[in-house]
Amino acid sequence: MAISKEQIFEVADELDAAGQNPTLAAVRKALDGGSYTTISEAMKEWRAAKAADATPIQEPPPPGVMDKLSEVGAEIWGVALELANGRLASEREGLEAARLEMEASRLEAVELADQLSAELDDSRNQVASLEGVAQELRAEVDDLKAKLTTASERATTAEARSSEMELRASDLRSELDRAHREADKNRQALDRVQDAAEKAAKDHKAELAQAQGEAKQAAKEHQKEVEALRAQHSKALENAQEAKAAAQSEVERLTAATSSLEYKLAQAEEKLAVLAGEVEQAAKERDSALEAAGTAREQAAALRGRVEGLEIALSRGEKDAGSQK
């Protein structure tokens, strides 16, 4: 919502009535915002109106001058007016030059204040943007931490599975040992059968040979089963080791990504702190510029009031001289 001149005049009157100096910064603070350019132009009109309302200084001619005027008339008064006009013109030129210089300083200060305000708004926008980026990075870090937790759980599961496979391999080794013991028993039984056959009679050699062949065939088949169990156990161990290595690699990758994002988050927070310091410094410079502009405007208003008072005094002097003629 745009701020009107009437609102600015009302706030300036309230500050002046309270005994406070209605500077640009004080008026803008009371209005809770507004453009420094708009406030500056309105305050220029307010100060000019206040100076016009002030009672001009009236200085009557000295008694000596009145006596001389009575004696010699308007000629001497004309010379006095000429000297006064010359002195007034000189002072007017000096005051005008000072006024122009102060006006230029005021405009420069107002422009600087607007520029600092724009830079302050930009800095605040950058701060808001960086806060958004930091929030996104925090969310990404949380997501990666969740993934890291999942990967750790998977690694734990893989380790548990590997332990189960090792237990299974141990069971297979125990079973293999049992198979070896059974084979030894079979060989011992075969040896006993051979001894009994040799002792019994030579006519039982054919039966004994058949029994030996069956025992050897059984031993071969049992050995094949043992070799198949060994191959299965070796394959299971390889699969468990591969799963464990893959899980460990995933954990390392997620750990590295988390460290990188935490480093980026730290950099963003450092940059955020630097920008906050720059914003605070810009606000201080803006307030200082506004105070300088207010002082320049006050000095210009005082000089303008003095010029107007001198012009009124000169005008009345010229009227008095005309009436004497």
Automatic annotation (TrEMBL):
Protein name: KfrA
Biased composition, class Low complexity, residue ranges: 150-160
Domain KfrA N-terminal DNA-binding: 5-120
UniProtKB keywords: Plasmid
Highest taxon, organism lineage: Bacteria
UniProt region (Disordered), positions on chain: 150-228
Keyword Nucleus: no
UniProt cross-references to InterPro entries, sorted A to Z: KfrA_DNA-bd_N (IPR021104)
Ranges annotated as biased composition (Basic and acidic residues): 161-207, 217-228
One Pfam family recorded for the sequence: KfrA_N
